[in-house]
């Protein structure tokens, strides 16, 4: 009996610690995404190069590229790297070229003797850019307004070299779509909140800007060039600091991407994204590991303590407090990032997402994606 009480007391201590860690992340890192206010004394009008890599994106280029080409900004170019496409992308781009003189096209032809990942296409676009400010998005993305370019570029000055934006997914029916949007929003809560607090560790290529001069002065993708993903997050992780990084996610500056329509495609995409995590700085890996670990311990110890009837009023009160804080923060950030309808689902997804990410992450150890897979 004595040993059982000691065991439960240890579990209770772990539970309390997990609650404290969870509340710290929610109130210090996540809530600041809602509270953050952007104040700019003047709008920067420096010329910008928007870079989009596309492979077999005929339909997406037709539907989404005009929104990029119609930005309300005086001086910018849009560079589309048509990378080994085998559909009608070239024809679509040719049609748009006659209407938009600021559109430029770089074509990479297929060569059976040379395979490459997305970083190569991205590098071609960066080399071709005329301007120092580079703004990146994907062919299956569209900005929410014609002020996207103006707001993203407005943060650059002599000190700021990186601007992190929010890239969400289009809202569709179904539970998978809700989970994809939840996953995207929680990742954004992490990287935007940590950047605001002075710990920038990643950005998303769907909505990211940095200076061309910074890219070349830091030898491009450098030691990460061989990794199939990471053209966005690893470059930010290696070079962004609290002093040279800003964030922009006010209304109209988000981008929306086409989400995976089936779970197999989403798992493949998620596996590719998670290949970069082992290459993060040690500080960032620790910060990113602590929260899901604390969350898993929180739910596990809660269930055991409740079933054991050990200090159940205190356990229930702590669980309720954490749940209330979670719902409030999710509701506020959901409004800020324009992600309606996922707060209630988040209470369920919150339980299982650490396990899902854990399984996908470690599945890469046994079934690694192809080295040169583009997307």
Description of the structure:
The protein has 375 residues and is α/β, with parallel strands linked by helices. The protein folds into 2 domains: 116 residues, no CATH class; 241 residues, Spore Coat Polysaccharide Biosynthesis Protein SpsA, Chain A (Alpha-Beta Complex), CATH 3.90.550. The chain is built from 12 helices and 10 strands. Helix 3 links the parallel strand 2 and strand 3. It is elongated and about 80 Å long.
Distance between the termini: 57 Å
Number of strands: 10
Q: What top-tier CATH class of the largest domain fits best?
A: Alpha Beta
At CATH level 2, the architecture of the largest domain is Alpha-Beta Complex
One letter per element, helices H and strands E, the order comes to: HEHEHEHEEHEEHEHHEEHHHH
Low-confidence stretches: none
Number of helices: 12
